[in-house]
């Protein structure tokens, strides 16, 4: 039975929860490395600290996709229970995260945060395929991207904005600045309220044949269904997986290393190493007094450290704001596509290829950027981000069994998290140092990876996937 078409605002309402999800992702992606550096992490150790994020996605998303495929309640729906559970856990973690007293606690909370966001996010992808007919799938994923762009821009600017409102971006050594703490608290509030908005305004449709659904549910087993889905993975999904591999390697590189790379290279304001200014014990650890405050070598050393740290925090706020520009340009990209796809078909393959190549050029331009021109890099990156969040899913949803949409979306996530795991386990550090030892070379690596991803679109040949 053909699903009925929805109007723009119905699609908007069912996708609005992505605003909160993206607040969580943008704060995580834009400022976790800043928190790690504040708590004493070395730059080359940061990608390894990020490994929690892709590992949780690898484990959580196929399970949540499977569970949501096999859930139906006349009262609570199919995907909505997972939206709410993930939102509650993520909001609590966002509130606690910037209060982390130690590096290992922040890394552990990142694990919880990413798991919680994944619990909410994956069912949202499946909901588009559940509720929209094939002719509206591109439009549905593009509206999600529009909302994600809004969330990225606002959340990335939050620390800068609250600082401008009078909340300090300075703190003692090893303490996260108040402006970042307040930004994460706002993110927690937005996450839960936007999810609740979607829960209230969107009604899920029951399975087309409820008796058949309940019968299949009784017979389903996760492990056997998992291996069957892997075996039946369509070739288009595998080809999209290759594109996703290089795309997400690039963006993981940006999230983990853009803050130290850009504060150093573009703003000439690296994070000062407190060990150069403080008293150390025999193991080389910073000494602290009874109030847990750093004991400096002298008052002069303390003043020099604080001055340099102030310059770094100002630069970090500006990097965060510049990063938010990719949310704005992805929003503009999505808005244009949204209006166009309401009445017209598009060539998803060519749009995705061009967008990824433009994003790759944006990363490469970072090497030449100044504080006033850095935004142009992120404008180009925004085109690729907008496409990454819509075109692969639109192509995928035209290629898989709709009864297993949640499971297949979860398995598709493997092509997102595996490159991130490889990057976190040393892939970034090894490859960017082949270009040069400066951290900005990690951004050149991201650009090369994204251009390769764009060219891999040439392997896509399925007409149903390409046109939509």
UniProtKB/TrEMBL annotation:
The chain crosses the membrane at residues 12-36, 48-68, 80-97, 141-160, 180-200, 240-258, 318-338, 350-368, 374-396, 408-428, 440-460. Its main location: membrane. It is a multi-pass membrane protein. It is found in: Membrane. It comes from the Bacteria. Signal peptide: none annotated. This is MFS transporter. SUPFAM superfamilies: MFS general substrate transporter. Keywords: Membrane, Transmembrane, Transmembrane helix, Transport. Pfam families: MFS_1. It comes from Flavobacterium ponti.
């Amino acid at each position: 039975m053909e699903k009925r078409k929805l109007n723009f605002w119905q699609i908007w309402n069912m996708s609005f929860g992505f605003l909160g999800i993206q607040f969580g992702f943008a704060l995580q992606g834009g400022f976790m490395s800043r928190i790690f550096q504040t708590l004493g992490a070395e730059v080359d150790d940061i990608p390894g600290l990020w490994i929690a994020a892709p590992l949780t996605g690898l484990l959580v998303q196929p399970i949540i996709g499977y569970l949501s495929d096999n859930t139906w309640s006349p009262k609570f729906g199919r995907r909505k229970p997972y939206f709410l559970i993930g939102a509650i856990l993520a909001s609590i973690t966002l509130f606690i995260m910037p209060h982390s007293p130690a590096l290992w606690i922040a890394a552990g909370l990142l694990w919880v945060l990413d798991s919680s966001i994944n619990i909410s996010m994956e069912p949202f992808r499946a909901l588009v395929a559940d509720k929209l007919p094939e002719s509206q799938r591109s439009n549905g994923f593009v509206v999600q991207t529009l909302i994600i762009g809004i969330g990225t821009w606002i959340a990335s600017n939050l620390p800068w904005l609250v600082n401008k409102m009078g909340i300090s971006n300075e703190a003692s050594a090893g303490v996260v600045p108040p402006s970042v703490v307040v930004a994460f608290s706002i993110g927690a509030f937005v996450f839960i309220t936007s999810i609740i908005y979607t829960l209230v305004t969107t009604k899920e449709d029951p399975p087309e044949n409820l008796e058949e659904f309940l019968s299949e549910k009784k017979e389903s087993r996760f492990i056997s269904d998992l291996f069957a889905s892997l075996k039946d993975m369509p070739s288009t999904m595998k080809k999209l997986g290759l594109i996703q591999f290089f795309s997400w390697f690039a963006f993981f590189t940006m999230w983990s290393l853009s803050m130290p790379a850009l504060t150093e290279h573009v703003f000439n304001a690296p994070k000062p190493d407190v060990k150069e200014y403080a008293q150390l014990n025999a193991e080389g650890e910073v000494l602290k007094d009874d109030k847990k405050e750093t004991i400096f070598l002298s008052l002069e050393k303390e003043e020099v450290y604080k001055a340099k740290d102030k310059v770094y925090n100002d630069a970090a706020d500006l990097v965060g704001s510049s990063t938010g520009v990719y949310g704005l340009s992805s929003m503009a990209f999505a808005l244009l596509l949204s209006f166009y796809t309401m009445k017209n078909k598009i060539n998803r393959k060519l749009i995705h290829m061009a967008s990824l190549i433009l994003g790759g050029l944006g990363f490469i331009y970072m090497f030449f950027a100044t504080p006033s021109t850095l935004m142009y890099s992120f404008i180009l990156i925004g085109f690729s981000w907008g496409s990454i969040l819509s075109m692969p899913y639109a192509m995928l949803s035209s290629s898989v069994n709709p009864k297993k949409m949640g499971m297949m979306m979860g398995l598709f996530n493997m092509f997102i998290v595996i490159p991130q795991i490889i990057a976190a386990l040393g892939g970034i550090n090894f490859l960017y140092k082949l270009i040069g030892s400066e951290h900005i070379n990690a951004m050149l690596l991201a650009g090369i990876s994204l251009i390769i991803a764009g060219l891999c679109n040439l392997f896509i040949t399925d007409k149903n996937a390409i046109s939509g």
